[in-house]
Known about the structure:
Elements: H1 10-19, H2 26-35, H3 38-41, H4 49-58, E1 62-68, E2 76-81, H5 83-98, H6 106-112, H7 119-148, H8 157-182, H9 188-197, H10 202-212
Antiparallel strand pairs: 1-2
Helix pairs in contact: 1-2, 7-8
Amino acid sequence: MAKRRRVGNLLALAVLSAVVQRPMHPYEMAAVLRERGKDQDMPIKWGSLYTVVANLTRHGLLAAVESGRQGRRPERTVYRITDAGLEELADWTRELIGVPEREHPRFEAGLSVLGVLRPDEATELLRQRLDRLEDQLAGQRAELARVAREVPRIFLIEAEYDLAVRAAEADWIRGLLDELITGSLPGLAQWRAWHETGAVPPEWAELAERGTEQ
Length: 214
């Protein structure tokens, strides 16, 4: 079970991971995180950066060390990570790596109601998704190979994971498409008949009734 974090926004995790190397002001944090592609690894709303930094400071995970102004630029406060922040960063990372949590991607939500579409339309949409996925995967593989020539692998493993997950999704879609195209998908005939006649197949009606009895 995931712990309730003092600052639960994943941007807070990203900020702590940046400041652990050296003190920074928020503008530097954003530049470092963008350079590392952290917005590709986790949902980040850049507009909330200053709020997250303020909350991390309020909870003692960051501490302001100095404020300065260059020319006409606004005053910038530099923050360092505290001992409590180091402990939080390590503990949060342990949890994310070691404790599996069920996540619900948008694609899974769509698959859960796939039956509302006609089988032929569902097949075409899955083909479109697979084509786009394969294009994206080719680009990801090329980019990862390019970056890997300069960046140690330890800083690229999240990109490897994302690539592996997306490749597995593509393989799964290929298998489902094969079942749809060959007609070997169990229940395909009832699915097609439902859309052609508007009558719910008896087997499906029985399942629905069984669900209401629980």
